[in-house]
Queue: 4 jobs
Job 1
Amino acid sequence: MTTSHDPFKNEIAKIVYQELMNISQNFSIAFSLKEHEIYNLLTVPPDFSLGQAALPCFPFAKSFKQAPNKIASELAEKLNKQNKLLISKVNCVNAYLNFYCDFNELAKNISQNINSKEFFNRKLLEDSEKDKIVVEYSQPNTHKAMHVGHLRCLVLGDAVCNLLEYAGNKIVRATYPGDVGNHVAKIIWYLTHPTNKQFPATDKTRWLGQMYAEADEAFKALKGTANEVEVKKDISEILRQLNNSSGKYYELWKETREWSLEELRRIYSWLNSHFDVWYFESECEAPSKEIVKKKYEEGFFVKDNGAIGIDLSQWKLGFAMFLKSDGNGLYLTKDIDLIMRKFSDPEVTKSIYIVDSRQKLHFQQLFKTAELMGYPQAAKSVHLSYETVNTEDGKPFSSRQLNGLQLTDLRYKMEEKVTKDYLERYRGQWTDSDIELTAKNITIGALKYGMLRVDNTTQINFSLEEWLKLDGDTGPYLQYVHARCCSILEKIGSPKQNSEFKVTEQYEQELIFLISRFNDFALQGAVQNRPSLIANYLYDLAKSFNRFYENCSIKNAEENIRETRLCLVECTKEIIFEGLKLLGIPAPHKM
C-alpha cells in the first residue's frame, strides 16, 4: 500500500529502504523487500520514552546473512549520520531500531497539511488497490417495529462505507428490505381475521408494530388446534396473491408496506443515512425462481429428493437448496438473483453483505454458487457479520416481544433527556432550534458511537444512561471535546499560521503524535472493515487532548509556545470532526 499518509513513518521507511539498497548493491546482495513493506513493519514502542516508532530487523537477517541485532546496530549508526526532517535520532535496542520524532517539525508539517486540507485528501490506496464495491446493509423487515437493535447493521454499514470511500474506493450503498414472506402473510392475515381491523388515523407504523406482536401471539395460540389447518390455507392464499400481484390481500400489503417504508425513510433521514439503490425481496421473488429453473435445465443445478440445488460438498459446504420440492424458493434463491443484479455493473469488483452472524453458511454457499455460475466477483465478496444488541440485562431486543422502545419513541426519549440534563441551562442564550439540533446530534452521537466502539463480533448491551454520559467512552464525550476545542479557539483566537513551532512538554508531544496517525487508523479501518479502530483512536485522542489542556497553559504562555498550543487545539478539532464524520456522527460546535 502507498506510504504517503503518515509523514513520520514515511520518512523512516524511505531512509531505511535507501540504506538497505545501498548495502545490498555494495555487497551484491539480493534484497527484494519494498519500501511500503518496511513501512508496514513499523510498530509503536510500548513506552513513549522509547521512541515513537520501532523497526524489527529480523526480516533482513536472511538476505544479509547477519544477526538481526548486528544489522540494527549498523543501520542506527548510518541513519544517525544522514540529514533527516522529522526524525531527531535513531537508537538500537537489541534487534530493533527505535526512532525518535522531531516534534517541532512534525507539528509544523501536520498543522500546515491540516490547515490546507491536504491531510484529509491523501492517497491512501494505490489505483490498483481500489475497488468499486456494493455494500448491502440495513435489511429491515417491513410490517415490523424498528427498535434500537436494528440500528447496529445500519450504523456499521454507514461507517464501513465512509471508511472505504475515504480510502479511495467507489461505493454503492444498497439496502434490501424484507417486504415478503411468512412474517408479512401472518400480519396481513391478522389484520383481516376474523374481521378487518380498524386502521388508526395517526401513528400507523407504531400500531403496525403492535399488530405484528399480537399476530405472533395469535399464531402461537393456534398451534395444535383444529383451526390451524384452515389458517394455513388462508396464509397460502395470501402468499399466492402477493406472488401474483393481485387481489384484496395484495392491495392491503401495498398500503401497509408503504407505511413501513415511509417510517424507514424518516429514520434514515434523521440519522443522515442514504442509499444509492433499494432492492426489495418482492422484486427478486419470481425472477429468482426462473433463474434456478433455467440453470437446472442447463445442467448446472441438480435434483435431490425433489429439491433443486447444487452439491458443494467438495468445498465442505454441503448441499445448497435453491428450490424446495414444492417449488417454493428460499432466501438463497432470492440472493442469487440479487447478486446477479449487483454484478451486472462490470465495474463492481465485489460486494460486502453486512448481515448477522447466524448467516455464515448461507453466504458461503451463495458466494461459491455465484462464482461457479461465472461471477468471479463473488470470490472476493465478504459477509461482514455482527452480533446482537441486547437490553441492559443481556436479553436480545425483539419486535415480537416488544421488549424495547420503538426507535422513534427512543429517539424522543433520549432527546428529551439530553435537553433536560445538558441543554436547559442554555435556554435564553441559545435559540430553541439550536437546542433541538444539539439534542438531536448528541442523541445520534450516543447511539452510533455505542454501536461502533466495539468490534462487530462483540455483543452489545444498550444502556440509555451510560451511552448519554458526557464523560467516559461515549459519543457525547467526543462531541464535547470537539465543542471544547471550538470554544478555546473562539475565546483565545486562531493560531498564526506562520508562527515558529515550539513543542516543550510531553503532553504536547503525545498529542501531536496521535494526531499524525489519523490516516493510518483510517486506512486500517477501511482495509479491515473495522470502524471500531477509528472510534477507539478518537477516544484515545480526546483523552490525550484533555491531559494536554489540563497540564499546558495556553493563554498565558510565551508567544511561540501559545501559538504552537493553539495549533494543537485546532488540529485536534479538525481530526475529531473528520473522525466523527467517518463514523457518521455530527460534531457540534457548542455543548
Note: The mean pLDDT is 94.
Job 2
Amino acid sequence: MAEGGKKEENMAGRIRKLDETVVNRIAAGEVVQRPANGLKEMIENCLDAKATQIQVTVKQGGMKLLQIQDNGTGILKEDLGLVCERFATSKLREFEDLASVATYGFRGEALASISHVAHLTLTTRTKDDKCAWKVSYSDGKMTSPPKPSAGNQGTQIAVEDLFYNVSTRRRALKSPGEEHAKIAEVVGRYAVHNARVGFTLKKQGDTTTDIRTPPASTTLDNIRTIYGPSVAKELMEFACEDTKLRFKAEGYISNVNYSVKKCTFLLFINHRLVDCTALRKAIETIYASYLPKSCHPFLYLSLEMAPEQLDVNVHPTKHEVHFLHQDAVVEKIQQAVEAKLMGSNASRTYYTQALLPGAATVPSTVTGSGEGESEGTAKSGTKGQGEKERIYAHQMVRTDSRDQKMDKFLARPGGSKSKETSSTNNEDEAAGNNKVEGLEGEENTNKLTTESNRREIKLTSVLTLRQHYEEGCHAGLLEAVRNLTFVGCVNPERALIQHANRLYLANTSSISEEFFYQILLKDFGNFGLLKLSSAASIKELAMIALEQEASGWSEGDGSKEDLASYVATCLSSKAPMLDDYFSMQFDDDGNLCTLPYLLDDYVPSMEGLPMLVLRMATEVEWSNEDECFQTICRELAKFFAVPREQMDEDNDEEDKEDKKGEEVKEKKNKGDGEDGLKWTIEHVVYPAVRKTLLPPQHFAQDTTFLQIANLTELYRVFERC
C-alpha cells in the first residue's frame, strides 16, 4: 500500500500537457478581461471591414448580452468555419508582416477567445450574397453548418452569457452599471477618433440611446456630443510633426480655463486606442504649472508614425505599444503642448479687486498678462487686448463673496464666548484639550489634531460613505455655495444669502447639519477634544431626555429608570470605539467627559446633549459597520447643527398668552446670546460652509435653498414702473 502511494505521489509531480480546452480558456482570459475588452476587439474588426455605421446593444453591462452590428464588407460563407479558430486571420501571412501591419485584428484571437467563454452567434452577408448566413460557435468550433437568414450587408455578432463557464472571472466583474460605463467609454473614444463612422450605443429594450453620433461628422462635434459642450468650447486644436523622428501628432487639448479632477486622455497611435504612461505624465507636468492643484486637463491625441517603428505585439489586448525613440518623441510633443498653452494666455480669465475705496470691486475679465480694470461680471476673455465687454445694468452684481465687514474683527455681541482657559495639568496643556464649563460651552481655541500627527483612515465603510456624499454633490449648487455672499440672518435658523444676481433664503440648520456630517466623515478619527469642565452622567442625561416630549417615551417602553440604565450600559460598552474614532471619552463611572472638536470658534448648543446621548443608544445601528458609522455621524451632526426654531403646537389660547409673556422676558435675558449666535453663523459657520460643503442633490429639491429674488427680473419690473 505504501509503495502504491509513493508511485502516485511521483506521478503528481510530472509535467503534462494541458487539455486544449483549458489552454484556450486561459488564453481567452488574457484577451477578454471584461465586456469592454471584447467590445474593443469587435469594434476594431468592424473598422477593418470598412463599416460606416456601428450599432452596439448591451444588456446587464454586457454580461448577459453584447451585440455589435455593422454595415461593412461582411464575411464569405467559405471562411465562416475559420472565424473562431485561434490565429486565423486575413491580415498576416509571415512573421515579418508584423513590422508593417496597419490594421487592428491581426492576430485572429478576439472572436476565438470570446467563443471559449461565451455563447457566440454570427450573422453576416457580403455584397454578392443573396442572403445572410447565420452560425453559432462554441469553443472555437461551429456548432452547426451555416443557415440562410435574413440580414443586411455587414456582420452582426451576438455574445451571450459572458464567462458562463468561468465563475471566478464572472464574480470578479463590477456591477452592471459600472461595466456599462466602461463600454460607453470605449464606444465614445472610438467615436471621437473615427468621426467618419456613425456609432450608436443603447441598452436592450430602451428606446433612447446612450451614445449616438452621425456618420461623416467632425471630431469636435463628437467630443461635444459625448463629453459635453463645456469641454468642447475650451479645446484648442493641436498639431506637431517631426520629419527626423518620422512622426506626426494632431488632436485637441484643453486650454487653461478648463480643468477637472481626473485627467481624460484619449490616445490613438496609428489609429489604435492605447495608453502611454510616459506621454501622459509628461503632458500633465506641463499643465501642473497652469492649473490649480489636483486639477487635470482633457486631451485627445492621434499619433501617426512609420509602422516599422511600432511594436504592436507586446500585450494580449494590444492595449500597450512600444515604439522607437520614445523619449525623444514624448519630449517633442511635450514642448509643442507647452508652446500651445503659452500662446493661449490671451483667452485666460482673471479676477481682480480694486484697491482704492469707492472703486469697482466686481470681478472682470482681464486679457493678456492680467492688466486691466475691474468692471462688471466675469466673462470669457476672448476679445482683443484692451477691449472691454459691455455690462448692462441688470447684469451687474453689487456684492462680492470676498468682501469683509468690520464686525468680524470686533468682539462678539454679549462678550466673547471664546476665551483662553488654563489647563489643570501638563497633559491637557500638551494635548491642547478644549475646556467646556458645565453645559454652557466655554472653550479655548486650541486644536488637538494637526497635519503632522494626522492618521490616515483606510476603513472601507468610511471611504464608501465619503464617496457617496462626493458623488451625490449637486454641481449647480456647488458653484452657488463656493461663491455665496452672506446678507444677514432672518433668525438663527434661516439666513439670506446671495449668489450672482440671485437672492436665496437658506435653511442654516439643514445646511450646518449636512456640513458637520461631512466634516465628521472627512476628519474621521482625527478630531480634537471639546472637554467638559465637569463630567456629565450618561444616566442623568438620559433621564432628562426621557422627560422631553421629543423622546417619544410611552409607558409601554418600560420605566424611565430602566431605559436610562440601558443607555448608560450601551454607551459605556462602546466607549473604546467612540473615544478612538469620535473623541467621545467616558470615565469608569459612566460619565461623558469630552466631545469631538469639529470647527474652530464653534461650540454647539448643550441643550441638545441629553437627546444626543439617548439617540446614540437607541437610533444607532451598532451591528453593521457602515450603518453604525453613518448613524453616529448623523446624530452628532444633528447635535452640532445650528438649532431649529421650536414650533408652538399648543392650541390653548390662554396658555399661549402666558407663554408669550414669559418668552418676552426670556428674550430680553438671552438677547446677547442670540446676537452671539448670529455672529457665529455669519463669521464662523457660513465661511466654513462656503469653503468645504458639497451640497447634496436633495438641497435643490427641498426648501434648503429657496430663491426669493432675481435681480434681472426685479430690474424688469422696476423698468416698467
Note: The domain at 20-212 is CATH 3.30.565.10 (Heat Shock Protein 90).
Job 3
Amino acid sequence: MMSLTSLTNLDMSNNNLGNYNQIPYNLPPNLQRLDLSKNTFNGGIPYSITLMTSLRYLNLRHNQLQGNLSDVFGNLPNLASMDLSSNSLTGNLPQSFSSLSSMNSLHLENNQFTGPIDVLANLPLQNLNVANNHFSGWIPDKLRRINNLRTDGNSWSSGPAPPPPPYTPPPAGRSSPGQRSGGSASNSTDGGKSSGIGGGVIAGILISILVVSAIVAFFLVKRRSRKSSDEGKLGQDRTFALPLSEAQELKSIQISSAGNIKPSEPAAPMTLKPPPIDRHKSFDEVDLSNKPVVKRFNNASITATAYSVADLQMATGSFSIDNLIGEGSIGRVYRAQFDDGKVLAVKKINSSAFLHQSSEEFLEVVSDLSRLHHSNIIELVGYCSEYGQHLLVYEFYKNGSLHDFLHLSDEYMKPLPWNARVKIALGTARALEYLHEVCSPSVIHKNFKSANILLDMELNPHLSDCGLATFLSNAEHQASNLNMGSGYSAPEVGLSGQYTLKSDVYSFGVVMLELLTGRKPFDR
C-alpha cells in the first residue's frame, strides 16, 4: 500500500465532496497535481498548500470557496497551472502571487475579486482569465500581450494610465539606458524629436502646484483658528457641525485652464446631534476644537476602508447603548447599520488604551490588521481616525461568541453538537497557527479566550482582537492584567507579565477544555 506522503497525483473532482465543509488541512505534502474541482468545499485555501513545494497543477474551480486569498503562494515556484474560477472569493489578489515564477495558466473568472491585477504583471502567463470580477485600475501593458486573455466583466479605468514618474538623469560618468558607454544616445524613430512634455516641465508643474497648495492650506488653517475662538462650548441639546478637513477644503479649490486659482463655494456642513449622555457611556465626546488628524502615514499600505466619525455615528445611532453588543479590555463594540443595509461591528478604542500611541502609530496598527487574511480570523473592514477618535470596523456575526453558546444558553439556543465543537476546535487552531507560524513576524494574541471566538450562521469560528496587543498592554492598568482571574492566562504571565507564543498556546488549551467540558475556566 502506498503511503499518502509519497502520493503525487490526487484527482477527486466532480464527487460532491465537502458537504459545505472546508478543504482538508493535512493534504499529502508531495503532491504535484491536485484536482478538487466541482465539489462543495467552502471556506478558504488551507495553509498546508505552502508545504507543497512540488505542486505543478492546482484546480479548485466550481466550489463554494469564499473570503480573501491569504499569502500562501510564496513557496510554490513550480506551480504552472491554477484554476480558482467559479467560487465566491473576494478581496485583492495576494502579493505572494508575484512569486509564482512558473505560472503560465491562471483562471480567476467568476469570483468577486477587487483591486488591481498589477501583481500578475511579471508572471510568464500564456493563458489568463479574470473575467466577471470586480477588478479595477488599469490592465498592465505586459498582460495585454497575452494571446489568451479575458478581462471582460470588470470595472477597469477607462482613462489613460497614470504617467511614469519624471525622468531623473543619471549621475555624471554613467550612461543612460539608451546610450552606449562612451558614445552618444541612439536616435529615436522620429529623428530625435521630443515626444510629449519633458520631465523637467512636469517636475516644475508639480512643484508649483505643491507650493500654491501649501500657501492656500496655511491661510485656511489660520482662518479656522481665528473662527474657533468665537465658538461657544457645545451644549447637550445643541446640534454641532463637523468641520471640513484640510483635504476637503483643498478639493474645493479650482484651477482654471489659465493657471488661476479660485475657491469654489464651500460645502454645507453636516449637522449631527451629539451622542446621548448616560451613566454607562464610555464613548469620548468629540472635541471639535481640534482639527482632524493630519495623516503623514502612507495610507497606500492600508486596504481597509476609511470611515468618517459622522458615518459611524449615524450607523450606530450616535453610539447608542441600544446598539452596544460587547465590551472588552480596550473598548466597546457597537452594532452599525449603514444606508445600504450592510451591518458591521464598530470597536471604539478607549482613550486609556491609547495613552502612549500617536495617530500615525494607530494607522500602522491598522495597516498590519488589514494584512491579516484568514477564514478563521475576523476581517477588518475599515477604520476611523478623526477628531481624536480611533475606531475599527469589523465584520458582524449575529450568532455571538463561543462563550455565549457555552455559558449563556437560553430556551432558544440549542446545545452545541459534537461535530460543531470539533469544527470550532480545528478552526481556532488554524487561526492561532496562522498568527504564530504564517505571519512574519509572529503575532502574539495576548487575549485568547472563548469570548473572542465569534461564530457565524454555520458555526464556523472567527477569532477576534488579533493584532491589538499594543493597545492591550496600555490598558492593563485598568483591566487588572486582562485575563488574570479568568483562568486563561499562563502562570508565567502572572509572575512576569510577559506574553509569549507559549502563553497563547496555554490559553488555547484552556479554551479546548472549556469547549470539551462546557465548564467555565475559572469556577469557584
Note: The two ends are 54 Å apart (CA to CA).
Job 4
Amino acid sequence: MLLRNLGLSTALGLLLTSGAFAYDLPARPTGLGFADEAPIAADVPAYVDFGATNQRGQACMSDVDGNAGVRLLAGFLDVWTPSTPFVDADVEAAAEGDCAAVAKADWDGVPGSDTDGAVVDATTHKANIDYVIEITRLRTQSEAVQAYLDDRRGKNVSMMDGLGPLSDAWRAGAWQSSTISYVPADADAVKYDDNGNNRGVGSLVDGEEANGDLGLAVDLIVAASADGSTEPAKRYFKYARPWRWAMDVSVLPTLEPAKSGSPGTDGGFPSGHTAEAWRDGLALAYLVPERYQEILTRSVEMGDSRILAGMHSPLDVIGGRMLGTAVVVYNFNRPENAQLKQDAYAQAQGWLMRQTGAATPAALFAAAHAAPVAEDRFADPAANLAYVASRTSYGFAPVSDSAAPVVVPKGAEVLLETRLPYLSAEQRRVVLKTTAWPAGYPVMNDAEGFGRLDYIKAADGYGAFDGDVVVTMDGALGGFNASDSWRNDIAGKGMLTKQGSGSLTLAGNNSYAGGTVIEAGRLTADNSAALGSGDVYVAGGTLATGQDGVVLKGNYTQLEGATLLVIAATTDSAALVVEGNIVIEGGTLDVQGPATAGAVLQIVSGQSVTGRFTQVLVNGQPAEASYTGTAVNVTVGG
C-alpha cells in the first residue's frame, strides 16, 4: 500500500509493502513555465491579405508596392535591378492593358541585349549562372529524360510520382490524362505540348455534376492556384534565362524547340514551372498527408529539373518556390475555401482507402509506404531530406544577417492542418518557426518569412522546445491523431508533456532539457537520445523504448498505473540506462520481443533504484523481476 501526502507539491514518506521502506518521490519536471510563440512580422503587409493583388493590374502596374507577388520577391533587387517598367512608346499599349506588348517592347528596346537592367550583387549573380553551367555540363541521361518530361507534360501529372504506391489510384479517381509519357525521337526538332487534362476533372463541368470520385480534390488543387501567376513578377524583374546570360549553359537539346525567341516574353525569375509544382504539391500534400514529405520532395525535384534543363537558375527556382507557397497559403486561408478543404480531404482519404482496401487510416498509411525504393524513389525518408537539404539555398553564401530571428507568415500554419492535426494552430506556427531555414540567403530573406519556411522538415515535428509543449492526441480520431513520429533533432530548454490516448514516437537525436512527462497514451523513444537531457516522469500511460534502447541524462520516475514497455531487452545491456536515479512507485513493466527461457534480461540501470513494479510481464506472461541497488533485471520463465 502506498501512502501519499497529496497536499505537498512533492510526495513524501512513501511506504512500499514489498520492501517496507520509505523514500521521497521526486518532483515532477516543471519546464520553463510558458509555451513558445511564433510572431507575425510587424508592419509588413501579409500575403494572405493581399494575395489578390498578384494581377497584371490596370495599365500593367505590377510593382513592389502594388503587387503582393512582386513584393514577396523584392529581395531579388539586392541581386538585380530591372530597368524602369515603361518607356514613352509603351503608353498606348499600357493604356489598353496589353502587358505582354509593354514588357516585350521595353525589354527588346535595348539594342543587342538579352538583358534589361543592372547586376547589383555580382558575386551572387555569377554563382547563380555558374551553377547552371556546371550542372548542365554534368547532366545524366536519366536527368535529361526527367527534365524533358517535367517541362512538357502537365505539372500535376509529374507530381503523381510523389504519391508512390497511391499514384495509380489517384490518377484513376482524378480522371487524369496526359499525352506525353516519353521523349519522342524528334523532340529536338518538334515542340510537343501535353493535350491531356493535367490535374484531372473537377466535381462540376459546365455547372453539371461530373467527377464524383476525386472531383472535389481536383477542385481544391485548382483553387490552390488562384491568383497564382508568375507573369507579373517576370514582367517586373526582367531577369533573363540562364542561357541568355552564358553560352556555356547547355540547354537540353530536346527542349530547344521550346525556347522563346524574345526575352521580353520569356523572363527567368521566378520559375513558373517551380511555382506550379509547389502550388500543386502543397495542395496534394494537404489531401494526402501520408505522403507529405514525399510529395514535396517531388516539388523540389521539379524545380531542380528546370535547372538541369538549362531553362532556369537556382534563384529562379527559389523565387518560384516562395511564390508558389505564398499563393497556397493565401488560397487555403480564404473563407470561401474552408468547406472545400474539409470536403476534399474527406473525399481523398475515403477514395484512397477504398482503392487500397485499407480498413483504417493506419492501413492506408501502410499502403502509402508499401513499395521499396526500387519502385518508389521517394521511399527513403533520409534520402529525401538529404536531397532537399542541398537544394533549398543551393549553396549560396549568406548576404545578410544569418542570426536574424524567425518570423512565420500569417496563416502559414494552415498547410500543416492535416499533417499535424493534433496540434493547435499556434503550435503549428511554432513548428514552422523551429524548423525554419537559417537567415541571410539571397532572395529567401523576405520580411514576412516565406523564404525560410521548410514544410518538409516541419512534417517531422518540432525542431526545438523553446517553450513547454503539451501534445494531446485523441486516438479515436484515427490517422496522425492516433499515431505519429517526430524525426527532427529537438533542441531547446522546454519540457514535453504527452497527453491523450494516441501514440507519439520521438526518433531524433534530441537535446531538449526541460524534461518529459507522460500522462496518457504512449510515448516511444526510438533513439537512444530521444528523451533529451531532462528528467522523465511517467505519471500515466506508457513509455516505450526502441530497438536500440534509451539513455536518460536525468532521473526516471514511474507512478502506479503507468507502464514501461521494453521493446527489445537483451542479456548484455539495460534497455533503459538512467544516468540519474530511478524511482518506481509501481505500475507495469512489460517486456516484449524474443526471450529465451531462463535468460536474465537487463531492463533498467541507474545511480540508484528505489521501489518496485506492481506487475511484470514478458510477452504477456507473468515474470519475476530482481532488484539491486542500481538495476532491475527480469528472468524469463520456462
Note: The two ends are 31 Å apart (CA to CA).
